[in-house]
Amino acid sequence: MKTDTFLTHLVRTLRDAGIDDVVIVVGHEKDAVLGANPTAFFTIPHFDGYAAVLIQLKKVTKKALHEAIVDGWLACAPPRLTDEYLTH
Hints:
- 51% of the residues lie in helices and 14% in strands.
- It is of the alpha+beta class.
- The two termini are 16 Å apart.
């Protein structure tokens, strides 16, 4: 499935379920993610000390959501998979 199609389907499914905010792991880049788009990405005290942010789906762009999902996956996925992804 193409990335744009996947993201569109994901956001539509979450919104249809009444979910406006999602949590995503962002690895070591939490402060950069929060600073780059503070209207769409935010945190709460519960996530202090964790490499995770909340995303307001009504305010995030497809590009920013895509980057956050990929960065979060790269932070958690096994090295073999990340190496394969990054070389293609």
